[in-house]
Amino acid sequence: MNTPNSKMEKHRPKIVVDVFYLYVAQTGIKTYIVTLCDEILKKNNPEFEYIISPNYQKVKQNQFFRGKTAKWKNLLFQLLYFFRKQVTLPILSYYHQAAIVFSPDILSPVFAKGKKVSVIHDTCFWDNPEHYQSLWLKYYLYFLEKGLQKNGEIITITQFSKMRLQELPPFKSIPMKVVYQASGLSESLALSDLKSNTQTRYFLHVGVLEKRKNLGILITAFDKLTRMVGFEDLRLVLVGQRGPRETLDDYDHLVELVTTLGLTEKVDFTGYVSQDQLASYFHHALGYVFPSVNEGFGLPVLEAFSFGLPVIISRQGALMEVAGDAALIFENSDAEALFQSMKLLVDNPNLRKELGEKGRIRLDHFSAEKFFLSLEKAFKEILNG
Predict the structure, then answer these.
(1) Residue 332: which CATH number?
(2) DSSP assignment of 269-301, as one string?
(3) What digits encode the pLDDT tens for the residues 343-355?
(4) What domain range includes position 337?
């Protein structure tokens, strides 16, 4: 006998959520997928029936492909990734009679049952093609464009990214919506009474050590700062793994720069850290600096806001959109301007407090609940459109 609830179950639109990229995802895309899946799992009566594939918990814990890996591992993942996108996902979509196949990691299958919705986080592929292996990039973009040409729609994460995507010929005619992602940092960590294991004053950066992060200019500005009387004790903490591919990785260059400037005792490369360790670094930092030249969102800005940390960002569209009036801004090629902003934060505790308070207010716009509600609203509009 069918109950009203069982009938409702049958008629809820099904959404296949592809989380395969979580095997390699770091920072922003990883947080996006984890936040999405956690919200799905804790919601009692979602308006859609979500099929998360592959098994979320298993993929989340897997470390086989993470960080800077051997070339054969990268090649293996790429082969498995393309096979999944173009073979496995289409089969899953027809098996489940999906209304939407949702790809939080950019690439949708060329053929699938229902609407194909891709999240395109930024325009790095088009803005900095030199950072990617040319043949790989050619085929990746081919499948991306083909996958969206028929029944495809785009969700992006800032108005800035939407504007940039709409300037690109392949996407001018493809429907596009903006859904701001959430911070993803555990509120319990942000509010906990974290114990300090150091009294050192330090500036912080969090993110994969890639060329587009523009960390060389941060190190140069920091070097000038520590040469001033009264600033010699300052340190710089760079939290994050090496870039996943040689063409993107900037670690060797950064280490060489630190060595050349004689900063090896003042600059810490932490590598991967746990969530508890990350929270501790945020909690005790003097300020957070994000000098990136190409971002689709700027997730660590929100993480810094979670701890009431004053933030300095480069003049980059997505970062300014996320930070609003709660951050200092410098021209991203001007090491002198960054030095002056860092010096201003060290000298002015009232400014640090003011920016921290503004950051906490700004954070209210980016809760996990608001993200998920906005995403489900976008799904409804896509299906009704």
Answers:
(1) 3.40.50.2000
(2) EEES--HHHHHHHHHH-SEEEE--S--SS-HHH
(3) 999 999 999 999 9
(4) 187-365
